[in-house]
Known about the structure:
alpha+beta; 3-stranded antiparallel β-sheet
Amino acid sequence: MQIIKSIQNRIYEIRGERVMLDFDLAELYEVATKVLNQAVKRNIKRFLMTLCFGLPLRVVPGTVADCSRKT
């Protein structure tokens, strides 16, 4: 049950969409964020691109600050 709660605590709602951020996914997989992002880029055909997106750096601080955690 603890692992489920840990995952649930890493799900955010941003602009009406439930998302997990790359650094949270990397932590769950016990790898560096850079390594996770490189793996996604190398295996891009394995990922549904509708499930992956990036935010411009100018948008990140406000968006992350305004997001709410799902529980």
